[in-house]
Design goal:
Shape: elongated
Length: 1230
């Protein structure tokens, strides 16, 4: 019977760890059902062609461990006096181990059915999902076929439903959010061990899995999502890949008026990976190397043209005047030019694997990475001099030892040691300067922007991190294999030293070009007494779990994970802080937590018999708690802010206390940069106080309580529909409380609904409206005293619908829609994830949540990571054996944002005050009324709606929404079959921003809609221009570009560009092996091809284009009628029956021969490495016909035989779908 297999997209690995398969079972004698001792067992991996051998024990049991075996195996049993038995085992769903029970007889054994699966997504690769998990996987071959960077794990994560994209910058990496948690709550592992980078050589990765919900207690150190990648290992067959990709500006369509803000980029990337045996079945090696250089234009004030400046919201004449004033001040605005940024990246991985005769295996892996960027940290409205350069480099060594102890106990030990370094230097050593400019942009629109110059507030910096991690897991298989108990542990220790002082050389802020010309800054701030921060910490975990095969249909996983953290260094003790606030500066948390989890997978509609056919329905779900490791960067921050004299302090100068800048003097003598305020001014306001950071009593590691419930329906043999519900409650998220804030308001702003202000109105500078945080202190001996606590929470709900499948013509598709809602209390960077919270994922800052009142009071509102609607789709359409087109697209609704004021107005020291939305009909300020009227008439529809709904009140946190963010890219893959290439070479042409190209084609360069662009929003609504001490009211200017997100208004546009890629494959022709095995019968059966792209939800998704069928035939030449004739004596066939059976056998043999010849011709025409989707569309009808003919023949045979004779025919002959060894699977033998 034809059974097209739509199977688990992540190829549910039966494993003890991240990369090791467990094959276990019992060998018995069929006649008496007794165990066979000392039977020789050979298990050969179909993927790697590696064979491992063991003997059965006194109970007839055997267990074989296969590192990176691939999920498809040929198992052969031999015993003295008995006929050899060979069976095939293929993973189907959430098997925790592969159970193979073999019955041996004295009669010649008909080979068990060889099943060729059209496998979904990642065939064989990736570790198995635990019952109830929701995840998606992709291997390197699949990623190379899609228009994305296969070496960037973050991009791969965005192919999963419900994952929220977080845009990066030149100084911060892009990330993603899962279940409403911050990117720092995620964890990346490589071969089951924490890995500190999202970049790996493309050809080194075997499979990457994005786990958005899972209940295996072995997984930890995250409360968001996890990317679990495995590296490739060598096999018995030499193989490899070589990939070169090119991006060139000449292939970009930049429009009629190309500008620095809308140019393409150059990139050359070479990635290669090759491996093979050193000693067959014993020692293997695989190595991969990737080299990349990228060059792109950095838009800045030094190269911006008039059109670009207008899009940035500043008039060209304002910039020209700024240049003149900067030159007059001795700043030399064109002294440093930086048009092109060059980024180099080198990464490499080498891996050795050694297999022993005793069932052990040892894997050793080394990795190295280096990257640089020159220049970096240059803003679009900055002079190039504000930038610098950066470098990152590091490497590590890992080892994995897997052991089989007596066939019942399995152990896997992993260790990893790594070091990473970074350094960055500014171009010049000067204070940073900021000039606020108001420009008439024409058409009645006024834009407010900040032009920057001088040094860089974030440079120089340097650091070093040492990491050591060890894990060990011991598991025990119960008699019969129904249970697998596992006990494991993890130990991770990190130490670091960092020089990350911000604002080392100070910052001057000017409210206008006039103030800049007069040399009268509004404020001057500087971090004093910078320190080298050092720290260390350890994180440990112990877990106990069980995976229980309750029945053939039901699998459960349950257990608990106990985790704790310890910080190895403590800050110095400051008794003054303890006396004033009740906090000890030398106390750091030691945290411990037990997290229970349970998950299940229940299959409905399983065939009455049969090992390989997938179920019609799958129900999955679970609930559990997940804990992130706390960031050791939090302790480093506390160590640098104890309030003692040798610790950092903040200098704040406003009004007449601001020093008069002398840029020429600063350039000649760094020691002349001010370290104190000027004399004069308000004598009641301190200018410099030490800051303090302590830990609150409630501090704990961030956690999330997660639950999910999903259902999958397979229909028409080729399609899967998934519906998944997920809920996550984030708890103990990191938040900050300023315990030195004088929470009693000194006055309120009557015109702004009674907004409280915590500084004396006499300390606010009337001409600029500048305030000082030092004026809102309860204790005048200290500045901010931040208590780091865990009092924040989040709440996330998601519903995902997905559909995947393969059409009759071989087109593979996967589409999903996710509705989500996430609210939180302002936890935008709650720390955690990775071994120690991504080192410095310490939890945003005191000013992360916006406020309209007391910043220490928590408030629920939409999260920054809230995206109500997200759609993701991948499509592969084969035009022929040589040509296919793939597409990857995402569409997400707008991210929330908050209208804010451009400076601190309540005096708490944070630029996080929400704007009051003045009603133009009632406000007394004519300038503000005019600006609001302009916005209400001209802002985008969503922005106008947000403003109108809140007129006359302070804005709510994240009360506005940005525009929808679409992206779509295409890739054309061509595999020629001439010049001896045999389809081993794939030449690809891919797009960068295909939507942008379509936008330009349809609307022209002057009327773009902004398709395919990242359309960020300007969330600053009001800028402070002064303060009226009489009315006690601020004077504001309305930013008429508030919420600007229309085409080009964010300045930078990504043009449509073409890229070229070539990928050459070395190694075995698996397709030919598959066809030969099908024709010959009893052979390997083939590995099932490359599979389709990620199935939704981590459960059976779209069928892959893997093998040509999912049918079990024992080979094209398999003839069950001839097998029955061979049993004539044992089943007592009569001469008359033999006369009727022989013609049936001859007819079936002739049909098998014709079909085999047809497949041989198809194999010849297709060449090596054909497009399996196109091939399947041609083969599938022939296979279905062959299966129907075979089934009809067997029905005729049953009519010829008596019921007694038919009952004596082995099940594997009567039913090609019988389980291995010809026996029905007992309950629990999934």
């Amino acid at each position: 019977m034809f059974a097209f297999a739509v199977v688990v997209p992540v190829s549910a690995r039966a494993q003890m760890g991240a990369t090791t398969d467990i094959i276990t079972g019992t060998v018995t004698r069929a006649e008496v059902n007794t165990p066979i001792e000392a039977a020789n067992i050979e298990v050969m991996s179909i993927e790697t062609n590696v064979t491992r051998r063991v003997r059965t024990n006194a109970q007839g049991r055997f267990t074989v461990l296969f590192p990176d075996g691939g999920g498809q195996y040929r198992v052969t049993a031999r015993a003295l006096g008995l006929a050899p038995a060979t069976v095939m085992v293929v993973r189907q769903a959430d098997e925790d181990r592969l159970v193979v029970n073999i019955k041996m007889t004295t009669n010649p054994t008909v080979l068990a059915a060889v099943t060729v699966q059209a496998r979904q997504n990642v065939p064989r690769e990736g570790d198995r999902p635990a019952p109830g998990s929701v995840e998606r996987a992709m291997n390197t071959d699949q990623a190379a076929r899609l228009p994305l960077d296969a070496s960037d794990l973050t991009q791969l994560a965005l192919t999963a439903p419900g994952v929220v994209s977080i845009t990066g910058s030149d100084s911060t990496a892009a990330g993603f959010s899962v279940a409403g948690q911050a990117p720092t709550a995620n964890n990346i592992t490589l071969d089951g061990l924490s890995f500190g980078s999202a970049q790996v050589p493309q050809e080194a990765v075997r499979t990457s899995r994005v786990i958005t919900s899972g209940y295996d207690v072995a997984r930890g150190q995250f409360s968001g999502g996890q990317i679990a990648s495995t590296t490739r290992s060598g096999t018995n067959t030499p193989q490899g890949n070589f990939t070169y990709s090119l991006r060139d500006r000449s292939l970009a369509v930049e429009g009629e008026e190309a500008s620095p803000a809308s140019q393409g980029f150059n990139q050359n990337q070479l990635s290669l990976g090759v491996g093979g045996p050193i000693v067959k079945d014993k020692l293997f090696v695989f190595g991969a190397l990737q080299l990349r250089r990228r060059e792109d234009v950095i838009p800045n004030l030094g190269n911006a043209d008039a059109t670009t400046l207008s899009r940035f919201g500043v008039a060209p004449d304002s910039v020209a005047r700024f240049f003149d004033l900067a030159s007059a001040a001795g700043i030399a605005p064109r002294g440093i030019l930086a048009n092109d940024r060059t980024g180099d990246n080198v990464s490499g991985i080498v891996r050795f694997d050694y297999l022993t005769d005793g069932g052990q295996s040892l894997s050793i892996r080394g990795d190295y990475n280096y990257s640089n960027s020159d220049p970096t940290r240059i803003g679009t409205l900055s002079l190039p001099q504000t930038g610098g350069d950066s470098r990152n480099w590091g490497g590590g060594m890992a080892a994995t030892l897997t052991s089989n102890i007596g066939g019942r106990f399995l152990n896997e030990l992993k260790v990893y040691g790594a070091v990473s370094k970074n350094a960055g230097n500014p171009f010049i050593t000067l204070p940073f300067g900021r000039v606020q400019v108001s420009s008439d942009l024409g058409g009645g629109e006024t834009g407010v922007s900040s032009l920057t110059f001088g040094g860089n507030t974030g440079l120089p910096q340097a650091g070093k991190t040492n990491t050591f991690e060890a894990t060990n897991e011991t598991s025990w298989l119960s008699e019969g294999g129904a249970h697998r108990f596992k006990l494991g542990g993890l130990f991770n220790v990190q130490s670091f030293e960092r020089d990350v002082t911000t604002n080392r050389w100070g910052t001057f802020s000017f409210n206008s070009l006039g103030d800049f010309a007069a040399g009268t800054p509004a404020t001057y701030t500087r971090t004093l007494t910078p320190r080298l921060r050092e720290g260390a910490g350890a994180n440990a975990a112990v877990y106990l779990g069980d995976t229980w095969r309750v029945s053939r249909a039901l699998q459960l996983t349950a257990g608990a994970r106990a985790e704790g953290s310890y910080f190895g260094s403590t800050p110095a003790y400051n008794p003054a802080v303890a006396q004033a606030f009740g906090f000890r500066t030398d106390e750091v948390p030691t945290e411990f937590r037990v997290s229970p989890r349970i998950g299940f997978t229940y299959s409905l509609g399983l065939p009455e018999q049969g090992r390989f056919a997938p179920p019609s329905w799958i129900i999955r779900g679970g609930i559990g708690e997940f804990r992130s490791a706390p960031s050791i960067g939090l302790v480093a921050s506390a160590a640098g802010a104890t309030g003692l004299p040798d610790n950092e302090s903040q200098l704040v100068c406003i009004g007449a206390n601001v020093p008069v800048p002398d840029w020429n003097l600063y350039a000649q003598d760094q020691g002349s940069i001010p370290m104190q305020c000027a004399s004069g001014g308000n004598q009641y306001l301190p200018t410099s106080l030490p800051n303090v950071t302590v830990f609150a009593n409630d501090f704990a590691a961030a956690r999330s309580i997660r639950s999910s419930l999903g259902v999958q329906k397979r229909f028409a043999q080729r399609y899967n529909f998934n519906l998944d519900f997920q809920y996550a409650r984030g708890v103990a998220l990191t938040g900050y409380t300023d315990v030195n804030l004088r929470s009693t308001p000194q006055f309120t702003l009557a015109a702004e609904g009674g907004r409280p202000v915590y500084v004396d109105p006499a300390t606010i500078v009337p001409t600029t409206g500048a305030t000082s945080v030092l004026g809102s202190r309860k204790n005048g001996s200290f500045g901010q005293v931040l208590a780091t606590g865990s009092d924040l929470a989040s709440d996330s709900k998601q519903v995902t619908m997905s559909l995947g499948g393969i059409t009759g013509k071989g087109a593979i598709f996967n589409v999903s829609y996710t509705w989500g809602q996430t609210v939180d209390q302002g936890a935008n960077g709650m720390g955690g994830g990775g071994p120690f919270g991504g080192m410095f994922g310490g939890g945003g800052s005191f000013g992360s949540p916006t406020t309209v009142g007391n910043p220490n009071v928590r408030e629920w509102a939409p999260s920054n990571f809230d995206r109500r609607h997200t759609m993701v789709g991948t499509v592969t359409y084969p035009f022929s054996q040589a040509i296919e087109v793939t597409a990857f697209g995402r569409l997400s609704s707008g991210s929330p944002f908050t209208p804010i004021v451009g400076s601190d107005i309540n005096g708490d020291g944070a630029r996080n005050d929400r704007a009051f939305l003045f009603d133009p009909a009632s406000t007394a300020d004519a300038q503000v009324a005019s600006g609001m009227q302009y916005l209400l008439a001209n802002a985008p529809d969503a922005v106008r709606s947000c403003l109108r709904g809140q007129l006359g009140s302070a804005a709510g946190r994240n009360s506005c929404r940005g525009p929808w963010q679409p992206s779509l890219d295409l890739q054309l893959n061509w595999r020629p079959n001439f010049l001896g290439l045999n389809r081993r070479l794939a030449v690809s042409v891919m797009t960068v921003n295909a939507l942008g190209g379509l936008d330009q084609l349809l609307h022209g360069s002057d009327n773009l809609r902004g398709w395919g662009q990242y359309r960020g929003t300007d969330n600053t609504l009001l800028y402070v221009r002064g303060f009226d001490p009489v009315t006690q009211a601020y004077k504001y200017e309305v930013n008429e570009r508030f919420g600007a997100n229309r085409a080009g208004q964010n300045g930078i546009t990504l043009p449509f560009q073409l890229g070229i890629q070539a990928r050459y494959t070395l190694g075995p022709d698996r397709f030919r092996d598959m066809i030969r095995g099908m024709i010959a019968g009893g052979g390997r059966g083939g590995p099932g091809g490359p599979g389709g792209f990620g199935g939704p939800g981590g459960q059976p998704g779209a069928p892959g284009a893997g093998g040509p069928g999912g049918f079990a035939m024992g080979g094209m030449n398999a003839n069950p009628v001839q097998s029955i004739i061979a049993l004539k004596d044992s089943i007592a066939l009569t001469a008359e029956q033999l006369a009727k059976l022989q013609p049936l056998s001859d007819t079936l043999a002739a049909r098998n021969k014709a079909l085999g010849e047809e497949f041989q011709k198809l194999m010849k025409d297709a060449g090596a490495n054909p497009d399996m989707g196109a091939l399947f569309g041609r083969i599938r009808p022939k296979m279905e016909a062959a299966q129907r003919e075979r089934a009809a023949t067997l029905r005729h045979v049953q009519e010829i035989l008596t019921p007694e004779q038919w009952a004596k025919v082995p099940e594997r002959v009567r039913n090609p779908q019988a389980g291995p060894g010809g026996a029905r699977r007992p309950p629990g033998d999934r």
